[in-house]
Structure formats: structure tokens, C-alpha cells
Amino acid sequence: MAAEGGGKEMNEIKTQFTTREGLYKLLSHSEYSRPNRVPFNSQGSNPVRVSFVNVNDQSGNGDRLCFNVGRELYFYIYKGVRKAADLSKPIDKRIYKGTQPTCHDFNHLTATAESVSLLVGFSAGQVQLIDPIKKETSKLFNEERLIDKSRVTCVKWVPGSESLFLVAHSSGNMYLYNVEHTCGTTAPHYQLLKQGESFAVHTCKSKSTRNPLLKWTVGEGALNEFAFSPDGKFLACVSQDGFLRVFNFDSVELHGTMKSYFGGLLCVCWSPDGKYIVTGGEDDLVTVWSFVDCRVIARGHGHKSWVSVVAFDPYTTSVEEIDPMEFSGSDEDFQDLHFGRDRANSTQSRLSKRNSTDSRPVSVTYRFGSVGQDTQLCLWDLTEDILFPHQPLSRARTHTNVMNATSPPAGSGGTNPGSNGNSITTPGNSVPPPLPRSNSLPHSAVSNAGSKSSVMDGAIASGVSKFATLSLHDRKERHHEKDHKRNHSMGHISSKSSDKLNLVTKTKTDPAKTLGTPLCPRMEDVPLLEPLICKKIAHERLTVLIFLEDCIVTACQEGFICTWARPGKVGLLSSQNQANSPSGTVV
């Protein structure tokens, strides 16, 4: 266990911690909360959530912050490590009656200094579209609760779209909406589009186009969170039934599944290059799942209670050259390692050499973090010996080459060899992979990825404006593929390819039968990570973990949003700002 000391020291709330890259320090005067700074009585309330957006204003201070506390929703200018927080001047504040905000998401594509589009989900099932800069409320979706009466658990804009968004509910359903369409005055009627093991997707039957465009029924129990892959083509969902399910979002195909050790899964995130997914939940573990191999590659144990949030740190995740003679890219590529679609190919070219030869030209280290109901923050490194286990696995703490946190974000992770020896492209890249047959899926649940999709014009083509068209083709047919854009066609979703899927009935999985299988390996069958650090940083359960370039942001259920300066960044908050700001509660 990485936590230090015992007894009284273990119960002390930490205001700083040290990793190999240096000292992280809590900036007490950069704390955001309700204006009165009084701890919120969190009994029976929904988790505090935080959303960020950058509006690109000319002052260079374009970050905006939204958070919910109980029935209240706040919108502030976020000054981060630069200046002390001024809680007396929220840009917008809203107090709701009869319902509570549960989650929210900004549309980063349309955000400007004059206008932002913010989606807010509520405990009674509605979704509101507001503009906190203009202080406008433009639309309310599911207003009469005819679509779903249960709590909204997660809401996100569809990547690359100005109008489509996805909403998950505690009923286990997800709905695709278009902001341009109404929800109708009657309950929607549905028609089956595709069905597979423990999931079904329906379209909305209506004479005129209306919301929801699609209804997903996933697993059993609440759908607790979902996350889009970095390129927006895949969707990872975690549910109360303990399953991670990864879908190709556009073709509505199930890519792979994983089962928790026990209990529900509560949170999920993707690595910046789309190669790995991390989940957390009621088994107190973090679980690392390989997208390419569709299998669990590691578990991490450090929390003493449920894990509420997991997130990758793209600014500390690194790709490091070991032997310059083996470097297959240019010097410019090596010096300019950033995650992102523009630079993914340069890093991919270097990592692909790993798969074509026995040499090991680069060392990969992924940093991710987790927070939980035990009020602890854990940081983890996913390292070379776990990612490429060519050497005997060690169950001791993994030793890694951790980059300096102030260095540029690293490049994407490239490709892994598939089971047939061919390299498989991951969601961080521009071309989607052919679907590998997962050893965790029955053969009948995997459709032929190489077959062309049949056309379903007329079913919902008019209803899914700007919805995606990119289907998964064999590599031989890639000249047929177009740029990944969401347009007016739904023809890529195959009705014939779902014939086999329709034969798969929705059956309840017995946890005892999954343990020891590829769905849920036994603890001794996969490497066990220990956290780099594990620190108690709050009085109440933690609900937020966000990695920004110069800081880490956490929040607890009392309604305090805390900023932790990265090593070398603490000096940016001047002593003058510290002196002039009101004293606050250090969490």
C-alpha cells in the first residue's frame, strides 16, 4: 500500500503529495464551492459533478466551470492555478424545485465567448438545454417523462455533432436525441433495429421525426456511465449488473464485454489513444481492459470502498524512446509527442515497429487516477511489463519510467498484435478496426465485420440527421470508406447482420459461472497493480477527478471543488492573489 503512516496520520486530510515527477499541492484559494463556502449537507442528494469548457476568449482566460450541489447549479470563470477564485460573481446560478441536477456536459464544438450549449440531466428524468452565458433555457427534453421516468445518470454530446446527444438512465436505457426535434405529446412507439446478448436497440416509429431517435436497452439494472472513445466511434457502457459493454456506436455492434469481480460497475474511461479502458465500481478495484484483445490485462487494489471516478492523465502518460537507433520516425516526431488525431500517426509509426520485429523501440507508460467513497485519491501507472508481458509477470508494484509532468503530452500508443498476428487499429486512429472475435463473446453474438451492410433507407433515415455512416468494412474494402462524418443516412446499420443476434435471448448471467473465464479472470490470473500514491483528501466521498494541463481537479460531496497544482505550477498563483482572497476551507 502506497499510503504512508498509520493511525492518526492515516486519517489526516492531505494537502500535498509527491510522485516521481514532483510535488502536487492543493491551492486552497483556488477552491470553488457555493458562495457562502458552507459545506453542503449531502444526505440523500445526487453526486456533485463538474464540467469544463474553453470558450477561447481573447483574454486568455477562457476556461469555464459548471458544477451541481443539491438543487443548485453554478457556472463560473475558472481561474485554475493563475488566480484565486472569486465566488461572489458566478456567471449563472440556478436553483431547481422538485428535482435535482445529476450530470451535465458542454458542447465543446459550438462554445464561444458569447454562447455555450450546456446539457443538464435531472433526477426525475428530464434533460434541459441551457446557455449559462446568455442565461437562457432553450429546450426541455422528456418534459412530461413520457420517454423515461427514471433518474438521468449520464448525458454527453455525441462527438463531432452540434445537435446529437446521448442520455443514460437508471432504468438501464439510453436514448439518442437531436436538439432540433421535439419529444412529441404521446409516449413513443418503438421498432426493433438490432438485438444481441443483453442489449437491444430500437428506432422510434412516428409519422414525423421526433425524439428519441434511438432507444438502447443495455444489461440489467441502472446504466451508470458511458464514455465515447477518443475518435467518437466506440461507446463503452458500465452497468449495475457489473458488465462493461463496448459497442461500435455507428453500426450498433457489440465489440466486447467484461465482468466486474463482484457488484456493479460505476465508472469508465478510455486511454487517450483508445487502446485501453479502465473501470471502477463496487468491488473496490480498478480494472484495465484491452480494447484490441478484449480481455482484462490488470486490476488495481488501493481503495477501501467503491470507486466512483476513473480518469486517464494525458499530460503524464508518455511514450519514451529507449534506443535512438531503433527510432523509426523523424526527430520532429520524437520531440513532439502529443495525443490527438493530428499526431497519432507519427507515434503509431514508431510503435508499429514493436509489432513487426522483436525489438522494443519505445517504452509506454499510461498514468490514470481514481477517487472513491473512501475519500481517497489514487494514482496508478500502467507500464511496459503489464502492457507487453513478454517477461514473467511480477505481482509486486510495477516499476516505471515516469515522465516529468511538465513535459508535453505523449503520443498515442499505436497498435497491438491481434490473435492472428496482424496489427489491429485502435479507436484513437482515423480508420476503425475489423472487429476481432472476442474470446468473451459467444460466436453467435459476433457478426461478420467484413460483410457489407444492407441499406435501411426509410426506417429512420430522415430521423437521424447527421448520424454517422461509417460502417466496419474489411481492410480490402477500405477504399469505400469516407471521412467519419455524421450525416443523414442510417444505411450502414445492417438488418441482415443482426439475424444471428436476434437468436440470442436476453439471459441473466450467473456471476459464479463467469469467474475464472475471460469475462472475469480470477485475481491470481492477472497482474495486480498497487497505487503510486493513495491519499485521503476529503471529509466526504469523492465524486470528481479531472486532469488538466497544469492541475488536477477533484470534488467531494460537500460541494468543494479543489485544484491541485502540478509540479512546478504552484508559483503561478501569486502571493498577492493569495493575500487578497478570502480564507476558505481546505479539503
Question: What structural class do the secondary elements suggest?
Answer: mainly beta
Strand content: 25-35%
The CATH topology of the domain at 231-238 and 249-320 and 362-389 and 517-536: Methylamine Dehydrogenase, Chain H
CATH architecture of the domain at 231-238 and 249-320 and 362-389 and 517-536: 7 Propeller
Strands of the biggest beta sheet: in what spatial order?
Answer: 11-12-13-16-15-14
CATH class placement of the domain at 231-238 and 249-320 and 362-389 and 517-536: Mainly Beta
Give start-end ranges of low-pLDDT stretches.
Answer: 1-7, 324-359, 391-424, 430-507, 573-587
Q: For the CA atoms, what is the radius of gyration?
A: 23 Å
Looking at this structure, what is the CATH superfamily of the domain at 231-238 and 249-320 and 362-389 and 517-536? YVTN repeat-like/Quinoprotein amine dehydrogenase
- Overall shape: it is globular
Helix content: under 10%
Please outline the major beta sheet: 6 strands, antiparallel
Distance between the termini: 23 Å
Mean pLDDT: 77
The total strand number stands at: 37
Number of helical elements: 7
InterPro entries: WD40/YVTN_repeat-like_dom_sf, WD40_repeat_dom_sf, WD40_rpt, WD_repeat_creC_regulators
Subcellular location: Cytoplasm; Nucleus
Biased composition (Polar residues): 437-453
Organism: Nyctibius bracteatus
